[in-house]
Every structure is written in structure tokens, then in C-alpha cells.
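Homework help board

Subject: predicted structure for assignment chain

Our instructor gave us this sequence and asked us to write out the predicted structure in C-alpha cell form, then describe one feature. I got the C-alpha cells but I'm not sure how to describe them. Can anyone check?
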Amino acid sequence: MHPISSTSSSNLSPRRKFLKQTAVATAAIAGSRYLRFTSAAAADAPPASAGNSSSGPWFTRATRWMQTNIAELDATRYDIPWWREQWARTKTQGIVVNAGGIVAFYPTQIPFHPKAQFLGDRDLFGDLVKAARADGIVVFARMDSNGAPDETLQAHPEWFTVNGQSGRPFTDRGLNIPCINGGYYREHIPAILKEIAEKYRPEGFTDNIWSGLPRANICYCDNCVKKFRTDRALDLPQQTNWDDPAYRAWIEWGYACRLEIWDLFNKTTRTAGGPECLWVGMNGVSITGAAGDFRDFREICRRTEILMIDNQRRVDTTGFQANGVGGRLVHGLLGWDKLAPESMALYQTASENFRVASKPEPEVRLWSADGFAAGIQPWWHYINAYQEDRRMYETPVPLGQWFQKNEEFLIRRTPVATVGIVYSQRNNDFFGRQDVEAQVNLPQRGFTEALLHARIPYVLVHADDLDRDAASLKLLILPNLGTMTDAHLASVRKFVQNGGGLIASGATSLCDQWGDPRADLALADLLGVHLPAGHPLFSEAGRRQLAAQSAQTYLRLTPELRAQVDGPHPAGEPPVVGTRHEVLAGFEHTDIIPYGGSLNALTVDPTAQVLLTLVPTRPTAPPEMIWTQNDHTNLPGLVLNERPGLGRVVYLAADLDRRYARNNIADSEHLLINLIRWAVKGDVPLTVEGPGLIDSHLYRQPNRAIVHLVNLTNANTWRDPVEELIPVGPLKVSVRLPDGVSGKTLRLLASDAKPALTLANGWASFELPSILDHEVAVIE
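My C-alpha cell output:
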């Protein structure tokens, strides 16, 4: 019997009876259309105990989460018995429950901590904690600590931020924003945490807006003025100026203040609630977002035992694969042995949010599947505890059941990859500055998209962790990594000297830790190129201008291969036939590829080889004017530097990574993939042949290899939402078996197919007839 129908209809209120009937009908419809996550064994299994019988602290065991983000009105209508059935159906092990902050959902004794409007004498938070305890489910007490009403401001003006222009507090969501360095964060919130921890003993605390005023504004309250002067012996900066020493100090100080809050809140909750009562905030998976909120993502990951990810949906420009990128980012810092549940919205999150309308099931499914493939766990998110759009109640049921059944293969996996993309939050701050999307995000996204299309597994490597993480890699990609410290440079040099490949683009290594330009590219000797004085990359304005350019320019491939068989050639000029470098494979029938930007003179070392040069701009209209007699230059766009004893090195002067992310030009993608395969010397541990857009992940566990593939092929791949899943196949998969994996057995976790497994020269191969949404292949 379906868990939701286990209660006799005679005992239900009219509203709950209607909900039950609708949910059962919806389940039948959903089950007929989307079966990939569901199996008879999963559907018939008894509800899992949320505590999980395995040993270890709760934060190592609670992998499946749910949240009903409580509205104040929910105090009058929260149907706890129904939600307990929903927890059981979805195999939920942990819940996130609104507790306090802006308003309290329990009878608080803390001054200026108002109760929810309709709470009355009810202890809604306490009731939910009791229900969870009875079901063996762990509880995160959810806080919202970044706003207070005028009554609190009037009583404690010293708690709040100050706008230097108005002298008033900054506001957000109709509330006054407290200062991270004032009594609100340093005394008031700790008092609330202590009260909740002592009274209810939740396993931990989350807080979705915990880091105070974003970086875009400077607070001039007395607390900040005094603390900045004490900590840094400086006056607060008066404006955004990345060249001002005071502003640079303020940036670093802003991060430090947030880490003080992180440590203070953890000390408070562990003292009051026990050593495993964690405060973990909530965090996104965007380095740009973390920088904008003064959250040092690397330090946060080093401090926490579990990371609660607030990253509810995709956007059209980054697609479902963004969840795979986010998982790689998180676990690259957190470690692959820790859990990272992600808040997955069950409501509509297209370009216009409808937060109480159900998101199409396939949209939730693909977002979840790509997260699962990258080591993310489910955390189903509802707005309000009562929904008129009841379709969203069924969406997480088969997903949660499938995850519970196959959890062993979805967590604590170590990635197997030979390619690493290097990044740092400092590069985002001091190099990206006010143009971070063009200078940092787009170049990185160009390479992640190319690797996605090439189906090449990769990891993200923080520049501060190069010595630790690069040891298992064969290629490092540095996409416009302008800001690099001396330690970063030394790590990259050692990697290349040990035979590792390197791809660098744009201003990589040009700037020091503050974003100030050096006299030349610091890695010029490895790259084989030097920037002459006056090059636009030396200035922030020049870099922004180069990135923003849009013109009808091209890149010429060398040598030219104009042959009679390909088509006409200029009168009087004989055909040219020759041989090109292997990185230009696939371009035999063209001498140019689209570009769109401009290039400047470089000094190229004799050891290096130039394979692309700029074709100058020409008019785009009228057609009679689309020509030029000056169609050759010697301005380098692509330089290879291969020397005995060192790894293969690529320098992209032409920003094809950025332009591919922005314009999606197929030739740019093809060339980036060629460069990756050449620089890594073909050392890729996984191949997936066949049709479709497939996000490809490879992992190892003791004595097993795990291939996790996600089918992102869809009519709405680039526009939310997806309403139908489209299968692709057949796919031929080949895996280089990690040490200790014999390759004797193969099982698939998302389909009933039983393909044959063949072994040859340390590789295991099999064929997948098709993939609907995703497939997980376990080789042992």
C-alpha cells in the first residue's frame, strides 16, 4: 500500500481526505510517465529510519532532507500527521524547521524576538521536533538572522548598519539590516541559539542569510569604525576603489568578520546543545556569490562537518550541468567523505518565480540527477506547509526512494579524473573586481562546457590546494587566472616540470595577490610568450575593453590548406596542401574559424609554435562590403610550447574560452576539446561514445568503479522548464579500471538493462541501450 494511503479515510479531515485522494491519483500519473528512479523494491520497502542504523555522528548519516519553509499562517494549519507520512514516503532522514531570528515559531523568552503572528500559545517548532524524534529524524533549527523591524531599531540603534549617505540602516525585504559587528549578531542571536539549543536539543542550526551586509555596501556604524581601526589601524574606505590600501584591507577584514561569526555561533550551539550541535549556516555554490557576501568558501568548508547548500534551481545560461559543477566545487573543498545536501525547489523557478506552483517533475528530476552525479544529496524544499498545487507532493517520492535504495554508491566516492580547472576566490575579488562575470566566470565556464561536451571527467582545484590536489592530475587548466601568488606559481611550475600539461588563457599569472600587474606574465617562460609594454592586459580598463569587444573577426589556421578539391581559390594562386598540428584536427576544410575579438602583439619564444593568427575585422553589411584585402596578420591567438622533459603547454591569447561560454560557437568548442586532449596526452580514464549531451562522472570506491552519466539532451535544455524526458542511445562506455577493481561484474542502478562487460588491457567496456534521465554503472 502506498504510504500516503495507509491512514483510514474515515479518520481524516475533509481537507486531508482530499489531499490523500489527489496525491494517490498524481502518483499513478507520475508513475506511468517517469519510471527511471522507481523500482518495485524501492516502492515496497518499509519507511527508513531517519537516524540510519549505521554508526557515526548524525551529520555522517542523515543524507535525505526535507523542509517546509514555514509561513506565519502555518501555525494555524500545519498538518503534522500528514507530513510525517510524507517524510516516510520520501525516506527523509532530516528536516529543516523554522525556529527563530526574524520571528519565533516557539514561545521565546528573548526580548525583541517576536513570535510569529498566528502562533498564539502553540509551540509549532517544539511540536515538529517531537514528531521528528518519534520518527527517528534529525532536526536542523532554521534561523533567519539578517533583518529586524523598526521596534528593534528604536530600542537598539547600535545593533544596525549605517548607510554613509543617509545615516540610516540599510534595508532589505522591508526589514532593517543588523551589523555583523554589533550586538545583534554578537549577543542577540547567540542568546536565541542558546535558548533553542537548551530547550529543544536540535542536532544543529542553519541560517539562510547569516553573513550580514553584502560587499556592495560599506557599513559606517560605530562598531565597524572602531573595530576596523583596532584590527587594521585604518579608517574605513569611503568608496569602492580596488587600488586603495584601505579598501583592500576592508575586503580581507570583511571575510575575517564573517568567520568570527561562524566560530562564535558554533561555540554557542556546541556549548548549549552538545559537541555535535553544529551551526552550519547555508551557502550557495557560486564563488562570485560567496565573494559578494563576504563568505570565504574554502575556510567555511574547512570548518564544517556538513555543508547545507542553498542552490535551488538552474538558470538558462548555465543549465542543469551547473549542479554538476557546483558539486565538484563543494567537494573539492569540503572533501568527498562529507555530506552536502542541496535545497531543491519543488515550486516553479523559471525566469519568473511562482513559489506556490509546482515545478514540472522532469525539471526537478534532471536538476536532482545532475546533483546526485556530483555528490550532492537531496533536500526537498517547499514554501509553506499547505499547498493548493498538490502535484509537488508526489515529485520527490520516487527520487527519495531511489536515493535511499542506492545510497551506498552515491556518497563517499573519490573522483577519478586527469584534468583539473584551477580557480581561487581571491582571483574573483582582486582580479575580477567589478567585471567578474567576463573576467572570471565566462572563461571558466567555457572550459567546463567544453569538458561536458567532450565527456571528459574533471575536478575543480583551489589554487591554495594545488600541491595537494594536482598530484593525481595530468593537466591543469588556468582560465584567465590573473591573480596568482608566488606559492601558486611555484606549484604550477613544479607540476609542469614533472611532466604535467598546462593550458592558460588571457592574463593568467599577470597580477600579484592584489591584482596589481607584474612586469610580464609570471609564467611567461613556461607559456613561451611575453607581453610587450603597453599591452591592454596590463590595465583593468584594457582587460574590460578586450572582453567586451564584438566584431566580425576570425582566426587563421596555420599552415593554410587551400586545396583544389575543396573549392575555388583566388585566380593565379596555386592550391596549397600541407600538414597541420594535431590540435587543429577536424578543421581540414577551413583556413579560418569565427572569433569576434581582437588581438595584440606578443613576443613569442623560439621554442613555441603559433597555430592561430588574427584575421582583421570586416563589415557585417551590406553583403557587397564583406571583404578585405588585409586578411592576414602575425598577431598570435594560440601558442603551443612543448619542450623535452616538461609537460605540454598551451597559451590562448584569443579568449575562445570566454567567447565560447558567451556565444556557443561550435568551432571554439571543438578547438578547446582538441587542446585539452593534446595537453593531457590523451590520458582520459573514461570514454562515452554515442548521441546526446551527457554529463559524465567517474568515481572509485574500494574494489569498485562507478560511472555516473546524466542525459541532459532536451528540447528545453537551455530554457527552464523541462516538461518531457528524451532518451538517448545506444552509448558505448569504456572505463580504465582503478587499482584493485577486477571488473568481474557490472550492474546498473537506474535501469533494468544487463549489458555484457568486456575487459581488455585494463579497460572495461559495455554498451547502454539508452539513458532516459541518468544511469549509474557499478563495476566490481
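Reply (TA_rk): Your C-alpha cells look well-formed. For the description, you could write something like this. The longest strand covers residues 94-101. That's the kind of observation they're looking for.
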